Amino acid sequence: xxxxxxxxxxxxxxxxxxxxxVGQEDIVxxxxxxxxxxxxxxxxxxxxxxxxxxxxxxxxVFDLSFKRIQFTPDLMPQDITGTxxxxxxxxxxxxxxxxxxxxxxxxxADEINRATPKxxxxxxxxxxEATVTEAGKTYELPRPYFVLxxxxxxxxxxxxxxxxxxxxxxLCKLNLTFPAAEDLKKIVYLTECDLEEGExxxxxxxxxxxxxxxxxxxxxxxxxxxxxxxxLAELCTATHDKNQYIREGVSPRAAQSLLRMARAxxxxxxxxxxxxxxxxxxxxxxxxxxxVLSFDAVSRGVSPDSVIEEILKNHPATKA
Amino acid sequence: xxxxxxxxxxSKLRWAKGRLAxxxxxxxxxxxxxxxxxxxxxxxxxxxxxxxxxLSVYVCLIMAAGVLTAVIFSVVKMPSEKQAALALDAFGxxxxxxxxxxxxxxxxxxxxxxxxxAEKHLRQKEGEIRISLLRKPVxxxxxxxxxxxxxxxxxxxxxxxxxxxxxxxxxAVKKEELEKVEKAEDVIEKLEDELAKQNPDxxxxxxxxxxxxxxxxxxxxxxxxxxxEKVQKExxxxxxxxxxxxxxxxxxxxxxxxxxxxxxxxxxxxxxAGEDPEQPEGQMAQGGQEGQEGQEGQEGQEGQEGQEGQEGQEGQEGQEGQEGQEGQEGQEGQEGQEGQEGQEGQEGQGGQDDQGQSQGQGQSQGDGDGEQxxxxQGQGQSxxxxxxxxxxxxxxxxGNGSGEGNNAGNDSKGDxxxxxxxGQSDFGSATNKRDYVSVPNKTGDDENxxxxxxxxxxxxxxKAQNGLTWEGEHVDGSSVMGEYRKKAYSGLSRGQYPTGxxxxxxxxxxxF
Lengths: 320, 512
Fold this sequence. Notes:
Chain A is an alpha/beta fold. Chain A contains 13 helices and 11 strands.
């Protein structure tokens, strides 16, 4: 697949997704960036914002298998990864591994913070290794593989917040916002009203998993100039400078994630190279869940995005 | 096509690099000028209260150092191609140019795509790309203002600056005077060396040694002085002393029997006096020109023959013996013509002053009286002519001429008088500002003047029209002395004479 072909395909996929999802352009773009980067995303938003519908639509457009896991406090690791069951057949009895819901191209882990840490770690281990080991046997997860985990910003009582080490495995964290009035009207109309034949337009499958893998290969080839790389490193190290609002800065994985996401963005913009603007746009979703804020920040209600904004202001891009 | 496209990108990069380099240089220049101006300004403020002799030199050096720093800085910080690419990308090109530049030499599938993409967008934005030469426009007028303030403050007067100017002038004069001393010392040392080869008189060597000591003492005295006036006075003393040494050497030359040694000593004397015996005619000495020799006094005219006394008339016959009339006296022999005055010593030519003007005044004075002799001898008078030349700023000259004419009527011979003249000029210096006082013979001093004494203190000079004489000028003796007195006192008030001589001069003129 050449570049132009890839761009055309991506553009078409975007259009199809736009038929099912009203508004939330930024979120849709960012999720596409995550998919093209081959990473996993953490979605945070109020219930009913269309997170499940979004992921379902994406999986339909790209012809990817989709599984949704609702995390509850009583969920067990085997409920996610799968379990071995004893089967009786003509030859006798034997254990058979029943694959869990994790074996899908796209997995929506709903309210991941409600499950116990043990269950969370089983999920996250699978994300990291892309394999599941059961009874001494290793099972590969399908490729491409994406996990979109969600969190509820309210109702945190009785939940198990993900530890920083686990959060670090997500490429980015996306904040879903309440749709605008116009978008809300459209959403209600599309879903609750009788539509005429011409108005009914569901998303179509326009891509395959193989083609998606080719797209991902193209994205990996997007060029990065040295000044851009320098700026990326500068942003990451800036989080470790003395700052009254930052207790812990980002990890090297953040630098990798930032570059991957910036490449995806550049590709979606039709560029063959990463720009400073790509970094500045992607740094918010990539850094916000990785920065450990100090008590000062928490007590003053300083958000991670404000801290990131300050860092960008103090470290402008290298100009001649 | 590919080569053409690369050419476009290359040319844009080159252009951007040039603009960045020029802008960098200007920024560095303005910053350096501001800092240099601040330093120079501080120094100038200091110079208003402290004596800093070469302030303008220091200020120029500081500003030059600022400019040089800017040049060096801009050369060291010459922008690279990458920086030029980033400068172009800053116009909304999304780092396409810098990425294309980096991938230019890489064997990647993406390289040609990057170049094409960069060039395409560069052409689209060509009209919008402007790389300014003045990164901070406010610096240009700021630097100009700072430099103007520095220049303006240079001209603000203050007592400390006046003192500094005086010190500078003193140093310049000191340098010249010390050079004179060195040259004089060289002359004496050379003379010593030459005489040493020829079995010289120990007394002569001792005198030369004494001269060297005096010169060394004079040098120390000059070095100690601070103000220009004091240095000038020491310079005057030095000139006076050099003249004395020249005269001493001249006497020594005259007294020397060995011709070769006499020549060497005479040459040294001339050098001390500022004459270079080896210099061809017409060449100016460094100072004023030499005064020309006074011309010889012309020969006295032949005295006319005394006429014969007339014969006594014969006594008349028959008459009682009357006494024969006395024979008439023989007519007086006519006076021998006066010996012509020795011509004026030519003016000592003034050396050129800074504007190339020469100043000189000559005075001549000739007195001559003819004496009538009863024995019908005419004596041509001796005339003394003195010429006095005043040197201008840089030269002094004086000429003396004297002539004697003796005419004996009997043999109708006239001997012309000898004339001698000598000229003097400065020794070496082109900036001597002194005037010499010439002390004439006192009127009424019979030892020195010959001629008719009218008894009323005035001298009288006879006019004579003769092919060999010329009309003289009747000058009142008191006005002449008055001129001398006036010049002497004027020189005293300007401090042109050595301090020790002031009383001598005053006493002399008060004695008239």
